Amino acid sequence: MGDSLPITSVWLTCQIPARDQRRGRYIPTTSSHPAKMLPHAAAHAIAIYSRPGDLVFDPMCGVGTTLVEAMHLGRHGLGIDIEPRYTAIAGANIALAIGQNAPGTARVFTGDATGLLDLVPATVVGQVALVLTSPPYGRGTHGLVQTTSAGVRKRHHHYGDRQSGNLAYGGWSRLLDGFAAILAASYRLLRPGGIVVITCRPVRRQRDDLIDLPGELLTVARSVGLIPVQRCAAMLAAVRDGHIVHRANMFVLLAVRRARDDGIPMHLIAHEDVLVLRRP
Prior knowledge:
It contains 7 helices and 14 strands. It has about 280 residues and is an alpha/beta fold. The chain has an 8-stranded mixed sheet with strand order 1-11-14-8-5-2-3-4, with helices on both faces. A two-stranded antiparallel ribbon has the order 6-7. It has a two-stranded antiparallel ribbon with strand order 9-10. The two termini are about 15 Å apart.
């Protein structure tokens, strides 16, 4: 489909830590987003499922990972995010990529992606080769760990404005309904045969309640007319000599250990599901 890379079902996208993937390629405030896509995962998807010169779209682009990686691979990026502070960071990351002579271009818009057809130029309808995105998993996620004089605490682990309409704050049904609306509109932007790639992982609402978010999103994607092509695993851990080396932070490790102490067979999540679908 795209660059001459092998199409595999397991993507080794975290062989180096996420912070090192971003260092020098993204501005420092990029770390303030609570659920950033791994740059190597975005780059792998873009390289496999698009070609140089193609248009790549992310309807929930956050701080612009999809756009920056598309630019460095000679594609053209288009993104939307509902929170102005994140689109400002995305714009700065785009400017940094331009300064680093990335061969592609990118634009980012601020707005609610459930109405994305009113936000993007009409000229892009039917022109997008690849939609690459990831939904919010809830109002709080992994974030960063900070050590202070008072102890260790999390920071940057919540999305911003509760009143902005962010799907992270809308509850389970609204998340799925909103994602369906976004995919239905994104379908209109895709060219015939265009590809949609969704990265996601199971989520816990309670310690003993693991929800199959990838399965739910696959059902939503099929409901808007997209055809499943492939299901892959993008690693969130390194693989060394056949062994998995986790990248989980202290809070995640503690949660797993406490759950196991209570008899709940919780495990570290070491990969994201990657759903690959196609417009007929």
